[in-house]
Amino acid sequence: METVYRRAQMEELIFSMVRAATIVLFAVFTLIPLIWLFINSIKQPIEYLATPPVILPSRPTSQNYVDLFKDPNSEAPLALKNSLIVTVVATVFSVLIGSLAAYAFTHLKWRLAPLLAGLVLLLGFYPKITAVIPYFVIMNNIGLRDTLLAIIIAFVGLNLPRTVWLMMTFFNDIPKELEQSAMLDGCGPWSRFVKIIVPLAAPGLAVAAIMSALLCWIEFMIASSLAVVKATTLPIAVSVYLTDKGMHWGPMSALGVVTVVPVIIFCLFVQRYLVRGLTLGALKG
Amino acid sequence: MANIRIVGVSKRFGNVVAVRDIHLSVDDRSFVTLLGPSGCGKSTLLNMIAGLEDPSNGEIYIDDLLINKVPPSFRNVAMVFQSYALYPHMSLRDNLSFALKIRGVAKQDIESKVERVSWMLGIHELLDRKPKELSGGQRQRVALGRAIVRDPKVFLLDEPLSNLDAALRLQMRAELKLLFDTLKATVIYVTHDQAEAMTMSDKIAVLKDGELQQVGTPLEIYFKPVNRFVAGFVGSPTMNLSPCRVAVDGPRFHLRTTDFELTLPASPTSRSWAPFAGRELIMGIRPEHLALAPDAGEGDVRGTCMVVERLGSDTQLLVKTGANVYTLDLPGSATVRTGQNLRIRFDLDALYLFDAESERALSTPEHLASAGGICP
What we know:
The structure holds two protein chains of two kinds. By secondary structure, chain A is an all-alpha fold. Chain A contains twelve helices and two strands.
């Protein structure tokens, strides 16, 4: 009996050590680049290419951040404003259109629904780079290139497959009797959606909105093909510091931090809902 | 309130026929139960009356108005679901008033109706709570209240007691009966529990594999089952059924099973057995019509007691007579132990005979039906 107890204790100890090591490894891989980014953003210009390399700055400076927002040639203020607008508007439309489509696919008696739902899923799998040129050509032809509207339309298109499928999972988990009860109570499809389905799928809508917002905030490939000057977003503005004449490490790192910090704060606030929402979609309560 | 007429209704889901050619009339202010095992099509039939499913064939009338194409909300029926289907994000007050709000009823009228129904069902103190804060019985009452508050023509109840524990189910059974008697409502009630059906209904419609087997009062269903299925499904404990054959021996008739032979009572005091002579039959006898023989007598059947279930008011025995096992329901507390050899006495006037092939009832004990108030 005692041997079994000791073996169990040993297993517990080994498991704890493996768990701790995994967490440390994960933190090293994910946090070190971020820490490195922040350290770079507060270094003196001479320290970037110093030999031997400077790990910690001798005299930390906030000049790079000041330049980002004070320098009249800096694109950062415009990029920040554009990113905010594009993220909010594209997220609202993605969730609105995506949840309506998901409701139609899951709740309305429609013979083509499974086929179309499969098609939407298929759209989520194509390599996004293949959409860059079509988007560029279409937006250029209809005169929307370098406008926020063009980027919003593209982002909504990017987000929709995932939003639709995520919301379909949530809607499928809502007992059909609730909707049948609402039908008998006198609700049509629209009021059933607004009064019954949406409140019950609120965690799912929150998850869809969070994931959509994150994608819009950091998307680079399609945005860079559609934005030239006026519609530039934060990831594009960061890339501007990579020039043929060299890299501007300081402002690039500072703008990188400006891009990343809102995401970190946002995730810290919403991670509880994100995890709960994702598991809610997978499990029946 | 209203009457309902179902004429030749069928429902197919792909190749599966869930409901087949049902004809059923529900009188105004009557309580009719659709009874049958799981998957027999009773809930599908209820959903078609509610408008939640479209019939593949046939017609449904409420008050002589064809409602096949009428949307659920315009049929003026209220449904209580097995899962109660309370809106979890709304308070009880909002749950009760939701349908009235949707229909544009004046705010004052809504308030007075909600008040009246909540007092009637004893849930007035709970009105500001959410469904998740309620017990099963309270949720059940709210679900009923949500139906009553609409003052519908027809109440449709889909196994509303099946999620409750046994004690609460008994209590709610009585409450429901009392409530619908008071409301003088037309009710269609779906259940697989024959005790619920027997105690609450004016009429029972028994279904099996989507087909209507029999419609009748509870006692008609119990005493005069039209076939083997109804006989076996209604009654607790269930009717004993075993294959048999009627043999002729001069003026006497004998009932032969694989295990024993019984001499049938002679005409004219009893039924005529001649039409069944030589046919493959199924013998049926209810457990309360089997008794332990107090002394050795002619025609008693020997068996071994396999199980003794003492329920206080009565004792149920499972007795093996050979290839067959018979259930006995004895009054009081019988002093029998497992493994004991017993002699069973059959009440031969209480025998049911069914055709072995078609399973239709060929002979039922009329005196039992008459004693139950059923005209022959």
